[in-house]
Amino acid sequence: MILYEYPFNERIRTYLRLEHLFGRLGQLLPRDSALDHHFALITIFEVMDVTSRADLKSDVLKDLEKQKAHMAAFRGNPAISEASLDAILARLDDAFNRLSQQHSKPGHELTEIEWLMGIRSRAVIPGGTCEFDLPAYHAWQQGQAGARRADLQQWAASLGPMAQAIGLLLQILRDTGKPQMMMATAGQFQQTLPQGRTFQLLRLRIDASLKLVPEISGNRLMAAVRLARLDADGKLHAAREDAPFELALCA
């Protein structure tokens, strides 16, 4: 099964982009090759670009506070495990405290390291990080893998609180979705969203063996899925067959 996710608002869109970048960084850092570490550094720069929005940190802190209040309301509910509730509230408190104690944007201190900002400015140019453009960076890449990794971990340290908060918020959001099997008739599916709830994320799983690509669209009132197939010419063409898929709406 292949999972596709579609955000219904710009805030969740940003969270998903950051989660994607943090996931990539987490895979690249433990590796040893200089090329992997190059792309780990590029990923750090990408995270800095995404988190440069002035109100992002406050949005994340507000969401953490909102989730804490929401979870605390379950206190005393016999259907809810007190131990599980205490555990998630502790995680929310820890994420809130770590992020709120940061006095600047994630990665802001890196902007004061002239050498790194020189790499960042060249990285947006195709081939701009060649050894003749950045000899000092080339020398760093030729060093020991452990030394490079230590540098990268130090540079990425300030991204940790944001990564923790985003991961926790998305986990809680995804847990609200109840997966249901649906059928796209002649490659098309449309559903009116239940009123009284504001859905933020659509999650769709489809059998990889069908070789179908879902093109998802939606708003607060409706969600639609159009199935397509990638042909040999490299273009997506509308699929006309009936196909099952799993759908979850997360509020």
List the helices and strands and how they pair.
Elements: E1 2-7, H1 10-28, H2 34-50, H3 56-72, H4 82-100, H5 114-123, H6 135-141, H7 145-156, H8 160-175, E2 180-184, E3 188-192, E4 201-206, E5 213-218, E6 222-230, E7 236-238, E8 243-250
Antiparallel strand pairs: 1-4, 2-8, 3-6, 4-8, 5-6, 6-7
What can be said about the biggest beta sheet?
A: 4 strands, antiparallel
Strand arrangement, major sheet: 1-4-8-2
User: What name does CATH use for the topology of the largest domain?
Assistant: YacF-like
What CATH architecture of the largest domain do you see?
Orthogonal Bundle
Order of helices and strands: EHHHHHHHHEEEEEEE
**What is the first-to-last residue Cα distance?**
23 Å
Assigned CATH superfamily of the largest domain: YacF-like
Nearest-angstrom radius of gyration?
A: 22 Å
Q: What top-tier CATH class of the largest domain fits best?
A: Mainly Alpha
| Helix count from the secondary structure assignment | 8
- The computed structural class is alpha+beta
Strand fraction: 15-25%
Number of individual domains? 2
Count all strands and give the number: 8
Mean pLDDT across residues: 94
